[in-house]
Amino acid sequence: MKPTYENAIKLLESRMRKARPENRATFSRPDPVTATATQGLKGLPSLVGMKEWLQLLGHSDNAVNNLNIIHVTGTKGKGSTCALTRSILHAHGLRTGFPKRVGLYTSPHLLYVRERIQINDQPISEDRFTRYFYEVWDRLFGQGVENVRQPRYLQFLALLAFHTFIREEVDAAIFEVHHGGEYDATNVISRPVATGVVSLGLDHVDQLGPAIENVAWHKSGIFKSGAPAFSVPQDAGPAEVMRSRAEERGTSLTFVESDESVPRVETGILGVPVQRLNCSLALGLSRALLRQKAPDQRITPEDIARAVDSVSWPGRFEVISKGKSQWFLDGAHNTLSLGQAAQWFASNVRATGQHIPRVLIFSHISDARDGVSLMECLAKALHENDMKPEHVIFTTYQETEEGSVRFDKIMKPPLMAFPGLCETYSSLWAKFDPEASVSMEPTIEKALQRARNIGEQNGAHIFVTGSLYLVGGALAFLRS
Which keywords does this Swiss-Prot/TrEMBL entry list (predicted)? Predict the structure, then answer.
C-alpha cells in the first residue's frame, strides 16, 4: 500500500472498533466527602498501552511534558474552551513571540480528520498528516511488532497528535479529553502545566456512572500534582468530589467566575452566557501557563479582544449567511448543550431584528442517549425562549442518497431505518406544537433543500442541531 493520504485514511478507519463492549460497567455512588467509590470498568481502559506506545515511537515522558500541555475535560464546552485557550495563547504569542507555535488536539472532527490536530489555528496539511501518520503506523504496525498490542482509532489519533507536536516543536499544546478523564487515552500526560474542567452533566452514564458525582470522579482524574486545576462553577455534590480529588492529587483547584476582562457581545461564540464562563476558564488556563513558562509576560486586554474576535469553532455556535437566509449550526447532543444552543439561537435571531420564518432541522440517533428526551428538551427550550419554529424538519445522518460527499469523513454514523425514528419525532412534535409544519426527509441534502425552499422568497432563520453527524453533513453542503 503506497504511503498516500488516501491510504492513511483507510488504514486509520481500520482501527475503529465495531461496537462498544457489551458488559455493563458497575458503579457505587461516591461519598460526598471522601469521593471514594467503586468504579466499574467496561472493557479495557483506553489509557492502557499509551505510555508503551509512546516509548516505541521514541517519545519519553519528558518529551511529552515539554509540550507544555493544558489538559481539558468536562461534559459541555470542552471544544470551545480549548479553542478559546488556543486563540488567547496565539494572540499573546503574536504580540510577544511566546508561545510562537500552539498545538491543539480535539475530537470529533466535522468535515475531515485533520481538524483534530491543529497548529496555530490551522489543521495540519495533508502532506504533514501523511508523513507523521506513516511514521507512527510503521513503528507500531510494522515488522517486529506483531506480538505487541496495537492502538485503536482514538488511541492512534492521540499518539499521532503527540508525535506531530513533538516533531513540529510546538511551544504549548492543548489536549481535549476524549471521554471521561481517569482512564482516557490522553491521561498519559503525567505533568500538564494546568488542567481545566468545563460544565459537568450526566452523559455516557453506562461508562461514567449514574450519578453526577461519578462523572466528577472520572473527569477530575486528569488532575496532577503540581499542575493547578481550574473549573467553571459546579453543583455542590460534584464540586466536593473535585475538591477531594485535587487534595488527593496534591494540587490546587480554583472555581473561576466570569472574568470582567472578557468582552460582552450578543452574538458569536460568546453570545451565550456559559461561553463567557468558558472564556474565563480559558483565561485562567492561559495565565497559568505563562506564570510557569514566561513569568514576566501578561495577557493584555488587547490580547483578549483579538482572541475573541478571531476565535471560531466549526459546528459550535456557528452562523452562516447564504442569500437571504441565515443558518445557525450547533452540534449539541445532550440536554445541557441543547438548552444552551436554543438560548444562543434565540439571542442571535432577536439581534437580527428580522421577522422571517424559523426552521428547525433535527436528527439524533444513538444507543447511548434517549433521542426522544433530547428532542423534547429542545422543544421546551425553544418554547421558553419564545422561539418556536414554524417549520420542523426531521432527517437522518445520511448525507445523500448515494452516501457521503466527503472522502475522509471517517466518522461512521449509526444506521437508521427511515422513517421509523423520524415518524416518532414528527408525531411528538405535532402534539407539542400543532401549529408547526412538520416534515421528514431521508437525507441531510434533502432536508437542507427543503429549508432553502422555505426561505427562497424572504429568507429564513434555519437552526440545525441535535448531532455532530448532522451538523458535519450540513456544513459539507453549506461550505461547498
Answer: ATP-binding, Cytoplasm, Ligase, Magnesium, Membrane, Metal-binding, Mitochondrion, Mitochondrion inner membrane, Nucleotide-binding, One-carbon metabolism
